[in-house]
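Quick look at the format.
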Amino acid sequence: MKGVLLVNLGSPESTKTEDVRDYLDEFLMDERVIDLPKWFRTFLVKGIILKTRPKKSAAAYRKIWWEEGSPLIVLSERLQEKIQKKVSVPVALAMRYGKPSIHSGLETLAQQGVTEVLLVPLYPQFAMATTETILVLAETLRKKHFPKMEFTALPPFYNHPDYIRVLGNSIQEALQGKNWEHLLFSYHGVPERHIRKSDVTQSHCKMDGKCCFSESPAHAYCYRHQCEMTTVKVAEYLELKEGTFSTSFQSRVSILGSWLKPYTDKTVAAFAEQGTKELAIATPAFVSDCLETLEEIGMEAAEDFEEKGGAHLHVIPCINDREEWVNVMSRWVDEWAQTKSV
């Protein structure tokens, strides 16, 4: 029997500092998030970051927390419920960090007799700290607890025509009637060394702004290339004129080395200082709205843009559980479910 496991990033159980600390501990101790020797990662996370960041992050979460709970969890649950109503196979939900865990998601499917699972990392682009860590943990759990299960992973869909159409339509809808001057595509940043580590050729990625646009097997696992291509494909779909859109990267942690550039916060400030009054911003690395989109962009970036002289930052919601996206995901699930088992 076949079944589907949707997997998103995760969220603290509440906005209490201790819950945020537990979540950050699990998240930051992942060797694919902070890819440093364990002794140094432990010293950095437990000895420095967890001493101060939980309180600050808890305050940020309180700004965006919904009555039903974490926006990311609530939106993911809505997506799962809507997809389940449209497909004939069981669909479970899990988070890479926090609850519901990947183990509990697989257990839910196993209890329904599922032996073939479609793993769906809810990330359009591949990255060590997102897609890869999900697949690695899932395989570890399969070997230990679910040896009779077989996994198939949904490939990154950063340039899939269905996804581009949904994302493009969501942007067009959000900006309808607004006099925006420039559209900024802001993706979650990662350390540059992650890009080099994911380079299967060990030679293609040079961080020069050109390698992303020249053919290479490295692109199958290159986060930056896939972000750039999402921007290009959406711009083509929306027929945007050259110079009216660009790409940037947010959420950097400077203590972890050099991150992908240009940085979103500096880019937003620069647009305001250079006279741009109406700036639009989309966040296509995220399927569901979360702390990084609602607080970092929707509040912090918007406030900074206005303080620097801008009039309005038009923040475009993620595709979340919009019906067009539900229909696309449901079709992908059905297509997989109808394939013959090996």
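Next, a different chain entirely:
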Amino acid sequence: MKRPTFLLAVVSALLMALATISPAADGSIAGSVKAAGLSSNADAVVWIQQAPGTAKPPAQPVTMDQKQMQFMPHVLPVVLGTTVRFLNSDPTPHNVFSPDYEKYNLGTWPKDQSKDHAFATCAKFPCAYTQLCRVHPEMEGFVVVLPNSYYAVSNKEGHFEITGVPAGQYTVAVWHPKLKAQPKPVTVEAGKAATVDFALAR
């Protein structure tokens, strides 16, 4: 009578062990981005062009804030189908519009209010949407639409890391608001970190 209980315990233990082991089978891609002629190496989006599986957008909107007269973050990568919530945290009214692709103007709204926009189309990745404010033309930000969630944004030192990448061979590309570089091949081994570096130029 105790055998079913014993077998259930064994199966549960095996499932827990597999759940613990399986993430370690994934690798990562890390490296650096050097932006020629710029004071910062930040805001480069490094991403895998083709990845296994089907990427699903998050169930809840992700936020791009308007704060201290800036779009924050300055560069926001998202998976195709993601809804972005544009929040105004400044005491002055802000507007959000984009001149790119299907174009949109979400209007103007005051502090602590927000409006949403779904990025549901992209003919050729990446689709970079410039975010502008008609009230404050000096403001600029970018929403970069990608086909999967294997991406990272470089910091001011140029460092980036894409984690949870299944073992395999990939092509890694980079997008930057002002500069560019050619994609590079990379091989990811299970449980290991692959390295790829980019030198961005005009």
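The helical segments are 3-21.

See the schema section for token definitions.
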